[in-house]
Design brief:
With 322 residues, chain A is an alpha+beta fold. Chain A has ten helices and nine strands.
Chain lengths: 322, 322
Amino acid sequence: MAVYTEVADEELRAFLARFDLGAVLSLKGIAEGVENSNYVLRTEGGTFILTLYEKRVREGDLPFFLGLMEHLASRGLRCPLPVRDRSGEALGRLAGRPAAICTFLEGLAVRRPNAAKCRSLGAALARLHGAGEGFALRRENALSLSGWPPLAEAAGEGADRVAPGLRGRIAAELDALASLWPRDLPDGVIHADLFTDNVFFLGDEVSGLIDFYFACNDAFAYDLAICLNAWCFEPNMEFNLTKGRALLAGYGGVRRLEPAEVAALPVLARGAALRFMLTRLVDWLNVPPGALVRPKDPLEYDRKLAFHRRVSGAAEYGWEAR
Amino acid sequence: MAVYTEVADEELRAFLARFDLGAVLSLKGIAEGVENSNYVLRTEGGTFILTLYEKRVREGDLPFFLGLMEHLASRGLRCPLPVRDRSGEALGRLAGRPAAICTFLEGLAVRRPNAAKCRSLGAALARLHGAGEGFALRRENALSLSGWPPLAEAAGEGADRVAPGLRGRIAAELDALASLWPRDLPDGVIHADLFTDNVFFLGDEVSGLIDFYFACNDAFAYDLAICLNAWCFEPNMEFNLTKGRALLAGYGGVRRLEPAEVAALPVLARGAALRFMLTRLVDWLNVPPGALVRPKDPLEYDRKLAFHRRVSGAAEYGWEAR
């Protein structure tokens, strides 16, 4: 749940005057998006999402994110389409923050996806990977291998306050992944944060993907590994192989995985688990007093990481060669 | 900002099946309503507000609140209209809580209303008082004179931890109001919580009133006194007489105030200030650890109360006899 920036009605009216969306009818702050402030905006022109970018999103990255959504939407992917103002700009300023208006996507985010939804999600992820082709801008993945040691350092001794031995486990994992991490896998634009709250469904079919604010250029299979972590574990941290199969089959039905990608899945899944453990850990240790946002539990990913360390091959995630 | 009850998509679908609203298209938790969980709900039938009633609203009061909104809407007041299901019921259960769907009202809540908005608000309040006539149910105001001493007791010594001498000031005020409180003023259904976040505007005109969950039977002028407190003070707690004039003139243009009501305004304003100070104080002293809701500052009303104590007549609020 985001902490909202207050938007005064005069400011909003002035901001909207640059767009061909008619007069504002209503604005409601919504509990969506942890990094930014989001609102459902209704104008005479329709229903939209207004996003105010808070300080965790680097302003210099916004042209990449907004340009990417426009590129993906133009390739037929269902994602928010940034609305340009009369001068052709999608990015403006409101209440002292960078701000953009995007189209509203119908659909419901689900907390506990069934296998059918995992299959549809896999197919949507593969379509996203295809649709990103030809996008002109690049953005390195700041939260991949080289980004993890600084996070581990930032957590420091605090890790052991969260769970005994955690600091040592992190150090060992960093060492292991530094030597095991795959190079030269097929790559392109990845979402890099495709958790269940970023995927909308109508019935069991994906109706839209949102929140591209971690998108970057990296190995496609790493995105798949993130989804295995985020979609296929049960609340008790047991891996649901049926969901894993559905996710991988859904993906494979749209984009054929290369043998090197399949072979790399266990290591990529470890890396993805470590990445979310580390960012959650740093957030956990740095909750400001009086914060309205409750940080996510880093230990969930400590347990997922332990699972991945014991995996010997992609079949244990449900991979079935055809 | 509300703490949201999670609604699973299967539950939502089952709940909606009772209504003639078509399939669900989207559901977004919104930062509106402190007491309940509210969502913007889009279905094939349109856009609505779904409310889940949390524990601070007594379930036995819901027929009064929902029936009142229906009564007021049928009299032409712009307020949420509860949607009845096929069996004629507006109140159902969802995610283990009482729940209702209401029509969506366009308009923007404003944090800093100008005088024109105060005038429109005054007129809307008077229309509300007229529209409530003939409503069959009654609900006593649990937060009037007899409800304050238990709140003061609940705060107890904690009051002096919030501000030195506060406990004594509260006790003195309770004594004074017990003898000064007016009886036999014109009464009927009042909103009793018409703060700026409960009033929507399009331009400077009121487009809708929401959140009737403190509505009750009490003196009309007490509702006006609440609005003087909530709408006419500047952030530095100075009273803006221009706004007071506009509010009172807007009200008086629709419903004529009796001399006894005018005379009682200063005492009613003290009572209203004490009422909000006390409930905020109790909330302030009872924030559970890890709460996501930041309580409102009770001392704002300590300062407003000090202002009201020095008022000698309604003219100091901007009342102008015509």
